[in-house]
Amino acid sequence: MIRPIVSCALVVLIASAPAGAQLLELPGQTDSVLRLESLDGELELAFQAMLGEYEAEIESRPFDVARRIDRCRFIDEFAYGNEYLSWLDEVYALGDDCRAEVDAGFFNHPEAILFRLEGFYGDDLLEAARPYDQSTLRQGWTRAQTARLYAMLATSADSVGNPLAGPFAVHALELDESADVRVIAAASLIDMGDKAGAIRILRSPFDRHTPGESPWYFADKIRLLALAGDGAGVADLYRQLKESAAYYDTYTVAVALRNTGNIDDAREEFAAAVENPGYLQNPQLERFRFEIVHGTAIQAGEAYESLRDAGWSADPMAVNRVALFFEHPALSWRARDLLGLLGFVLALALVGLAAAIPVSFVHYRGLVLRVRKGLPDATAGLRLRHAWYGMCALGSASLLSLYCAGPLSFFTQQETAWGIDVDSGLFARSFVTQWFIQLALFLPLVWIAVRREPVSARWSVPRALIIASLVAVVLRAPLIIFWLVSSDAPSALGEGSLQWEMLEQVNQEFGVLTTFWLIAIAAPVAEEFLFRQVLLTTFSRHISFWAANVLQAVLFAAMHLDASGLIYIFLMGLVAGFIARRSGGLLAPIVFHAAFNLIAGLLLLP
Amino acid sequence: MQWAVLLFSILAWMPFVRAQDVAGESAGFDRTAADVMVLEQRAFAALSGVIGRLRPSAAVPELTEAAVAGSSAAMEQLASMLWYGEGVPQSKDEAVRMLRRAAELGNYKAQVFLGGLHLFGEQVEQDFLQARVWFEAAANQGDAFAMFELAELYGNGLGVEADDSKRYELLTRAAELSNPDAQRELGILHFHDAVRRDYAKAFYLLELVAEEDKDAARELGYQYLLGQHGEQNFVLAAKWISKAVDLGDATATLLLADITEDGLGVERDLEFAEQLRAEIIATSSAEELNDIAWRYAVAPQELFRNGPLAVEVMEDLLASSDMVSATRLDTLAAAYAEAGRFDDAIATQEAAIAQLSAEREPGSSPPDLDPRLADFRSRLDSYRSGLAYRLPE
Questions:
Q1: For residue A238, what are the CA distances in angstroms to A246, A287, B301?
Q2: Residues A94-124 pLDDT 10s
Q3: Percent over 90 (pLDDT), chain A
Q4: Residue A234's pLDDT is what?
Q5: How deeply is A509 buried, as exposed, middle or buried, from its count of CB atoms within 10 A (0-12, 13-18, 19+)?
Q6: Does A111 reach chain B within 8 Å, measured CB to CB?
Q7: Is the full-model pTM beyond 0.90?
Q8: For B47-196, where are the E strands, in sequence order?
Q9: Dihedral of CA B121/B122/B124/B129: which sign?
């Protein structure tokens, strides 16, 4: 009966301690210093009383190691919770004595071993605790003690990203159903495909956490249950979480509800996420994404309005408004939505200006050269304006394809390679669409080229095939060697390249045929036509071939938006230009480009 | 030859065990903790047959050495071998002394063993306080069995003040650690305890153990049958009731007869139901028959009532034994009422009330103060107004 009273008193004192500590920082407040001193004295009395309780108990039952360690733990926690105490050093000394006493009498006792292990974290703990993984070292350990060991191993393995965390956690839970490693175990079971096992673990009634105390933990459990496909479990935990009225991770819960088909509750949570975004970057966008798929026209329209309320920057090119239009064409447009279309026109103008920079450079340089040498102006074949149109077509195809990418935001702090917040599957779709648009926009150019440019192929078809493929192999030699030497090297080469990231996504979404159509047919044909036919030919009519070749290769590399592979792609562009000149046609560079892409595709794509 | 070596090694080491007095001086301060660990590992390796042959006696030297060095696990192992006479000559005295030493060094198995000895008064005097102390030490280390035993002590107020919340706490912890007894007790508690009612948890727990536990299987079948605390499912009810019958539960056999008669979850088969009841009635004692008839007469659920059968059982019972007791007359009256024979019920209940005073032992309280009297009278009143008696749900 005494102990509860003493501990209650202690709790009250400890709870009031920080207030005292704050008062201490104000100078000249004698009252508060006095109050602190009296608090100090009261605490010491309570501490001694509690210690006396423990000591009396230990004296009557010296064999109860768990109680002895409880005493050490109490001393440690007391020191930890009262760092301003004047007699803190004494408390620390008492803690050290307590540990030494336990070790002297019960060094090999499981409780003592576990208590020592509690002082380690991460890799250190893994190293210190790993020997006890052997059951021969656990003679006289209870089930609960073994479970504690494995829970410790699981937690620290998880904190350092060690893959053994999952198996450790599962083992801990097999021994003790209340072990606090449920989420680690369930996540690992889901990864391994044992969804039923994960559900059993997550729905065990022996979870010590309550939704009111650990709402974010419950949100995590809901996420995992949704991954395991347990809709009833998600609904049950969601109900508990709602009843607790705690502040939880609404977005995670919303996604879990959506994925288990509970659309009405998901709608509520997406709306709540807008109020309380937590770590979420674009809550309005997430809500809009949800409503555009699951909502009625009115609901989707409302979600768009709430997104657009954040300002013009929320939808600068009306991409989201167009996505809404595709889904619900009947929704009326508002005046401010037209601002977004204005943004698109502006972006088009920027593309045109950017394309004009190299063209004007070539134009004036060519003018200077012709004046200096007294040469006449070129009048036949493709002209510089066609080169400008080609580059504009390339840029506008990218801009236009964005309208197939679904709801997106250009402003995000997420670590995405493209720097925009977009659904990766839809983005892959827009990437594929981009090539269709590009090919369509090139058609007028092709028509002009066929009519005005004489064909003067100098290489026979077999010769073009053989030489182009051989050159591609030579240029790809570093990658092939890396691939032969180490299986990790290709992925290291491919990493960080936006193109490859996108291709992997396309591969995942549309399958291997589309991917190879893209890298072996669409890209070589379109790019070789633009850069080696249109740009190279027109530029070299104004400036020297080598200058024209370097310029088109620079533009070719810049178009790939790949900082790490910039020089390599530039080199490839130079070689392709050279091949185009030597072969006198487009077949050889197209084959070279296709072979160059195919080698990497075969080696890098899974 | 091997036998001779074995015998020699036992004989050579046994006196050493006694002479060194493991129980007295084996704290092993001249050895480091690591040494003890190594010796302990070697001893248990020998015991499990990793070293040498799988025979308890073969490990006695190693175990002894480890025990002398201060390994409590080795002491406990030796003690239990001594207690059961496995590999060493049986000596319960020695075993208890060694157990005590191991328990004092914090070995949970020894603590549980010793607690059990004190609980049943085997080899030591029966002492619930001591039993509680040892079980508590093991439970504090997280031993589920000790927790369950301790929960029972708290439940029955043995060696400690009875404390329901403490019992609940201990049962929960033991159930978390997969102790089947605790899981059953806790499951039943979650069904019936008014404060801690949690049907989802109760079903979860009972389903964990019902495969091997007749009480749990019967309870589970009963709950599915009534469907008061969750989903009513006759198929599952029949499954678990049959399971309990297979495990040898008499009450479950009656339940099975009831559901077979009504065709709930099993095929309707009056003959089989009859046969099951006859079997139980034939093998039950007079006390059990009275309970069976009482249940058939006053069960709150219509499903479990069977007036004619209760009348038949009680009439046979009263006819076959010359001892007439007030309780049995009371049961018969309830059975008559259930069967709709209220005149017989009133007459029998009056006879039961008269019997109360006849049963009165000299020197005991007068019949007016018999605690059963009020119940008997209230039942008589309800029979008079044409109502059969029902147990509260």
A1: 12, 19, 36
A2: 999 999 988 888 888 899 999 999 888 889 9
A3: 47
A4: 93
A5: middle
A6: yes
A7: no
A8: none
A9: negative
Beta-sheet strands, E only, within B183-232: none
Quick one: pLDDT at residue A19?
Answer: 45
- Contact in structure between B223 and B203 (CB atoms under 8 Å): yes
Of A142, A176, A206, Cβ closest to residue B108: A142
Q: Coil, helix or strand for A27?
A: coil
Closest-CA residue to A43 (of A76, A73, A77, A9): A9
Which residues share a beta bridge with A421?
A409
For residues A391 and A133, give the distance between their C-alpha atoms in angstroms, rounded to a whole number.
Answer: 65
Helices A498-510 and A424-452: angle between axes, nearest 10 degrees: 100
Average pLDDT, chain B: 83
CA end-to-end span of chain B, whole Å?
A: 72
Task: State whether residue B264 sits within 8 Å of chain A by CB.
Answer: no
Q: Do B105 and A110 touch (CB under 8 A)?
A: no
DSSP 3-state of A421 = strand
Return the number of other C-beta atoms located less than 10 Å from residue A454's C-beta.
6
Residue with token string 């249109």 = A534
- Reduced DSSP (H G I as helix, E B as strand, rest coil) percent helix, strand, coil of chain A, to 5: 75, 0, 25
Cα distance from A198 to chain B (closest Cα, Å)?
Answer: 16
DSSP string, A336-386: HHHHHHHHHHHHHHHHHHHHHHHHHHHHHHHHHHHHHHTPPPP-SSS-HHH
Kindly report which listed range (A139-143, B5-9, B365-369) carries the lowest average pLDDT score: B5-9
Cβ neighbour number for residue A89 with a 10 Å cutoff: 10
Residue A11: pLDDT over 70: no
3-state helix, strand, coil in chain B (%, to 5): 70, 0, 30
- Put simply, the chain A residues between 187 and 206 with a CB less than 8 A from any chain B CB are 204-206
pLDDT tens, position by position, A422-458? 888 888 889 899 999 999 999 999 999 888 887 777 8
Q: Is B73 on the interface with A (CB under 8 A)?
A: yes
DSSP string, B224-264: HHH-TTS---HHHHHHHHHHHHHTT-HHHHHHHHHHHHHTS
A539-571 residue pLDDT tens: 998 999 999 999 999 999 988 877 777 888 899
Q: Give me Rg for the CA atoms of chain B.
A: 29
Is the pLDDT confidence value at A480 over 50? Answer: yes
Q: Rounded mean pLDDT of chain A?
A: 86
Question: pLDDT by residue (tens digit) across B153-210?
Answer: 999 998 888 899 999 999 999 999 999 999 999 998 998 888 888 888 998 999 899 8
Mean of pLDDT values over A317-321: 90
pLDDT at A530 (0 to 100): 93
Place of tokens 């423990």: A54
Residues B107-159: tens digit of each pLDDT: 999 999 999 999 999 888 999 999 999 999 999 999 999 999 999 999 999 88
Q: Is the pLDDT of residue A335 over 60?
A: yes
Give the nearest chain A residue to B137 (CA atoms). Answer: A64
Residue B97 pLDDT: 92
How far apart are the C-alpha atoms of A458 and A589, rounded to whole Å? 13
Residue of B nearest to A109 (CA): B106
Set of chain B residues whose Cβ sits within 8 Å of the Cβ of A111: 106, 141
Domain positions in chain A are 1-107, 281-450, 455-606
- The token pair that represents A349 in the structure block: 């103008």
Placement of tokens 């600068």 in the chain: A316
Candidates A439, A472, A471, A478; CA nearest to A565 is A478
Classify residue A409 as exposed, middle or buried by CB count within 10 Å of its CB (0-12, 13-18, 19+). Answer: buried
C-alpha count within 13 angstroms, C-beta hemisphere, residue A142: 29
Structure tokens at B140: 């504090």
